[in-house]
Amino acid sequence: MTGNKNDPHLTGRIAATEWHLPFEFEYEGQRVNYGVMGEGYPLVLLHGTPFSSVVWRRISPYLATHRKVYYFDLLGYGKSEKKDGQDVSLGVQNQLFAALLKYWEIKRPDVVAHDFGGATALRAHILNNADYRSLTLIDPVALSPFGSPFVQAVRNNEKVFSDLPAYIHQAIIKAYIGNSVVNELNDDVMSLYTEPWFGELGQSAFYRQVAQMSDQYIKEIEPGYAHMRCPVSILWGEKDEWIPKTEGEKLHKLISGSSLRLIDNSSHLMQEDAPEAIIATVLDFLNKIDIAEMQHEQL
């Protein structure tokens, strides 16, 4: 699926005000914002770090022509609540996701998850027994160890980074996010990703989530990869500098029966570099599952 080259969704010309998360869910006294679009079988989108559900703005409208699409901002990200002393680690995000599935009364959804969202979906499946009809993983954080030298620096000096002058912090955020794509983001798109992390509250929240990254949350689920209870499709950017494609190849071997597709000219943030590849691959994957289920019912 290539889509219309002038389509505002694929070109990214979607203003921040057009991305809505109008609903609120309370998780342990903390606000989590979410949205829903489309009709049909449920499909849930999970974003990663340091992003928000806005990564799906170019993709969800297409998926919503085939599915009822749910999307939300992880705790401490995007429009969801941020506060001092908050636990926003991978150890809490799977608990939140499991609670949301129960709240939405969704059983066996199709799930599409990126980066930390991938880790969250895997943890919910393995630790919370959340069942999926299918799972698509896009450049997920799924193998230990993980974390760049920058992450290590923040872990050891969270307060120093939180107290940086705003202009230095803003430069760091822009450089960090800019490194996640092959094609340079224009100012409007960059602002979609940086805005939640600006201001005193946003700056503290950014370094909080980085400081809480830990290999332990991945190590405790790695043995479960050999026992996945749903079909798994893996997408990986050929030019991902955050998590190299060799990690995708390792994960593919660990998850029996999974498929792996490497995407040319895409880095870590595939939603910006190659949204059409995600749309085409996900819809093809879901169609194959539809056909397999229909054939099974006819037996």
The separation of the N and C termini measures 32 Å
Q: What's the total number of strands? A: 8
CATH superfamily: Alpha/Beta hydrolase fold, catalytic domain
Class of secondary structure makeup: alpha/beta
- The shape is globular
How much is the radius of gyration in Å? 18 Å
Supply the number of helical segments: 13
Q: What's the architecture in CATH terms?
A: 3-Layer(aba) Sandwich
- Percent range of helical residues: 40-55%
Strand line-up of the largest beta sheet: 1-2-4-3-5-6-7-8
Tally of distinct domains? 1
Largest sheet: 8 strands, mixed
User: How would you state the average pLDDT, rounded?
Assistant: 93
Q: Runs with pLDDT <50, length 5+?
A: 1-17
Q: Determine the strand fraction and express it as a percent band.
A: 5-15%
SSE ordering: HEEEHEHEHEHHHHHHEHEHH
Protein name: AB hydrolase-1 domain-containing protein
Organism: Mucilaginibacter polytrichastri
Pfam families: Abhydrolase_6 (PF12697)
Describe the structure.
The structure is a single chain. With 299 residues, the chain is α/β, with parallel strands linked by helices. It has one domain: Alpha/Beta hydrolase fold, catalytic domain (Rossmann fold). It has 13 helices and 8 strands. The chain has helices at residues 8-11, 60-63, 90-104, 116-127, 149-156, 158-162, 166-178, 187-194, 199-211, 216-219, 245-254, 270-273, 275-298; strands at 23-27, 30-37, 42-46, 68-72, 110-114, 134-138, 232-237, 259-263. It has an 8-stranded mixed beta sheet with strand order 1-2-4-3-5-6-7-8, with helices on both faces. Helix 2 links the parallel strand 3 and strand 4. Helix 3 packs across helix 4. The longest helix is centred in the last third of the chain and has 24 residues, at 275-298. The protein is globular. The relative contact order is 0.14. Residues 1-17 have low confidence and may be disordered.
